[in-house]
Design goal:
heterodimer; A: 115 residues; mainly beta; six-stranded mixed beta sheet; four-stranded antiparallel beta sheet; B: 113 residues; seven-stranded mixed beta sheet; 0% helix; globular
């Protein structure tokens, strides 16, 4: 079984500032981890994923996330926020490459970017 | 068409109506999902199909009836819905159920009046 906690349902940053969205997970097996972005009235779009290998993962739109096993975290960062980054972000975990392991999603974090 | 498509994008229906939502994936995947996304609630997994067979039904009321005629198509048949069923209904697909990422459609915004 696995679960995801996203700390902060709303995060507000100024344009050009660092974006940090927090995600902590629990999993009884080595996890696969994902970040998705959702713009208003649209579906979820995959930003990046970690499965195995390098723990720092780069995704689309300048985002990256680092898998830290000791902290059971997979925080999402971007050095400089753009207005277009305003959206809802979801962290998700699965139990790796095992049959029957579907994604478990966090509650989401709404990112607001101030001009 | 590429990816996952959903029709209609918007639907308004009365509580006595019967309607269907359609999802189609062009990715060659074998697993398909229905999710419900309500305001201020976490994403709720409703149904899962793998190789056309239903593998998961998360205690969804019988007024929601899924159908998966083949690995590329998924339907959600709706009848006698309640206002609280108003939500964004998202379809997703994945290669199989082995924990890979899911690819989402744009959703159907459903309003029950």
């Amino acid at each position: 079984a696995q679960s995801v906690t996203q700390l902060g349902s709303h995060v507000s940053v100024s344009e050009g500032a660092l974006v940090l969205l927090r995600c902590n997970y629990s999993s009884s097996v080595p996890p696969y981890l994902f970040w998705y972005v959702q713009y208003p009235n649209q579906g979820l779009q995959l930003l990046l994923k970690y499965t195995t290998g390098a723990t720092l993962v780069k995704g689309i739109n300048g985002f990256e996330a680092e898998f830290k096993k000791s902290e059971t975290s997979f925080h999402l960062t971007k050095p400089s926020a753009h207005m277009s980054d305003a959206a809802e972000y979801f962290c998700a975990v699965s139990g790796g490459n095992n049959a029957g392991n579907m994604l478990t999603f966090g509650g989401g974090t709404r990112l607001m970017v101030k001009p | 068409e590429t990816g996952v498509t959903q029709t209609p994008r918007h639907l308004v229906m009365g509580m006595t109506n019967k309607k269907s939502l359609k999802c189609e994936q062009h990715l060659g995947h074998n697993a398909m999902y229905w999710y419900k996304q309500s305001a201020k609630k976490p994403l709720e997994l409703m149904f899962v199909y793998n190789f056309k067979e239903q593998t998961e039904n998360n205690s969804v009321p019988s007024r929601f009836s899924p159908e998966c005629p083949n690995s590329s198509h998924l339907f959600l048949h709706l009848h006698t819905l309640q206002p609280e069923d108003s939500a964004l209904y998202l379809c997703a697909s994945s290669p199989d159920l082995k924990g890979y990422e899911q690819y989402f459609g744009p959703g159907t915004r459903l309003t029950v009046t």
